[in-house]
Amino acid sequence: MRNNFMSSSCFSSMYLDSAEFRQAVHAICKLYHQAESLYEQGIHLVSTDEKTGMQAIERIHPDHPMEPGQPERHEFEYTRHGTQCLIANFEIATGQVIASTIGDTRTETDFVSHIKTTVDTAAEDQWVFVVDQLNTHKSAGLVEYVAQACQLDQPLGEKGKSGILNNMASRMGFLQDETHRIRFVFTPKHCSWLNQVEIWFGIISRRLLKRGSFTSQANLKQRVEVFIDYFNQYLAKSFRWTYIGKPLVA
After folding, report:
1. In terms of pTM, does the model score above 0.85?
2. How far apart are CA 228 and CA 102, in angstroms?
3. Among 13, 61, 196, 233, who pairs with 47 as Cys (CB 3.0-4.6 Å)?
4. Which residue(s) pair with 50 in the sheet?
5. How would you list the strands of the sheet with 78-91, edge to edge?
């Protein structure tokens, strides 16, 4: 699959003058191009994010199928049955969606639990998570989990007062530490397009969510899980990421 998903806003003059921004973008793209070799070394590079507000919408009447000269038509009346949140991992090297979590919320506890479940699928391997800068991706609970899972014997301090746990900047610095077996790479602000799982979110939206009719939240969850299994078995392959982290020239 070729990725042509670019955001012009990310290349405004304010960003082009930022060496730190260019370095961050280049580092993520370099990881993407190294994904297969990292995977062979037992290092999992995964793109992780939440797809919130997936609506369990049930169409009141069946769709009208395609006919010659007439596209498929959807009934405009529907019943809402609530929403679900999907936390997904897109493994860059294989193109598979692994260890997904589907639930009612996306709290700090939900995200920490998701990361733990993901790491437990290969507990001795190294993990690199590409994530955006959502607050829950830089939480005290996540720092505490990484410290425990990596068996790091160092004081963490106290949230809002001191040490690593003090604030989001200090926690982010800890989570990015390249010496840790589990680490995080953060996309620059307003650049979620760099996160490859966003491309996969577009796929599930087009192929399932926008066309589906779901009788309950449980039915929505089950259909999403079935789609992920089908995708991994028949459709999964790594994206051909051609961007190398330099400003585009028109």
Report:
1. yes
2. 12
3. 196
4. 87
5. 97-103, 78-91, 43-59, 126-131, 182-186
74-111 pLDDT, tens per residue? 667 789 999 999 999 999 999 999 999 999 999 999 99
Q: How far is residue 88's CA from residue 123's CA, in Å, rounded to a whole number? A: 18
Are 156 and 177 within 8 A, CB to CB? no
With a CB cutoff of 8 Å and minimum separation 6, the contacts of 132 are: 49, 186, 187, 191, 192, 195
Rounded CA-CA distance 142/65 in Å is 48
DSSP string, 46-65: EEEEEEEEEEEEEESSPPBP
Yes or no: say if 195 and 131 are a contact pair by the CB < 8 Å rule: yes
> 51, 85 in Cβ contact below 8 A?
yes
